Amino acid sequence: MAAGDDLKLIGVWASPFVVRVKLALSFKGLSYENVEVDLTSKSELLLSSNPVHKKVPVLLHKEKPICESMVIVQYIDEAFAGTSPSLLSSEPHERAVARFWAAYIDDKLVASCIQSFRGKTEEDKSEGTKQMFTALENLEGALKESCNGEGYFGGESVGFVDVSLGGLLSWLNAAEVMSGTGIKIFDPIKTPLLAAWTERFRELDGAKEALPDNDMMVEFARKRQAQAAAVVAASEN
Hints:
Elements: E1 7-11, H1 16-28, E2 33-36, H2 44-49, E3 58-61, E4 64-67, H3 69-79, H4 92-118, H5 122-147, H6 160-166, H7 169-179, H8 192-202, H9 205-210, H10 214-236
Parallel strand pairs: 1-2
Antiparallel strand pairs: 1-3, 3-4
């Protein structure tokens, strides 16, 4: 990997937002120091690096912190503009469109997935599922428009939106397994272009390097679920 000019990533391996940053660094071929933190006992490094939100990921570049996953991805692309691939186009309208869809993924897809799988009532979950599939259908249309469904959101190579959505893949797979509902998020019947995109994306060398193992993600999710249940049980006693 190319030298990353003193890059340090503060994060948690299972976080899909941390994975986004790892994907960008991996696709750019940049080396970095990975600093795993425990969010139940936040380190002074994390608190001093992100005093506003106190969350991961945080990228330190020459000891200067950058926070929020897609802000970091854009920073990496700009700070290492001479390193291929370029994740954002140099054309202003294409850059704006990419930012729109990246924001849409967080505002609509992530939010609806959480509601679908963690809603307090069956009605909440049903509404979340409905919104989730609406978001996926819209992303299917965006993929078709960008590359006729045969490449990536960035065109012939991965781009900003690919990193945004790709970072969620292992997390979404774990959510599918944990839900026990049989819901398939990237359904080859409902959204065939997205389903094919996930397979292409996972086969990229940069993705293989950055994406967490699916089985490990499921195991992590089960432990988190058990811990949450134990906390609830303790509070009721």
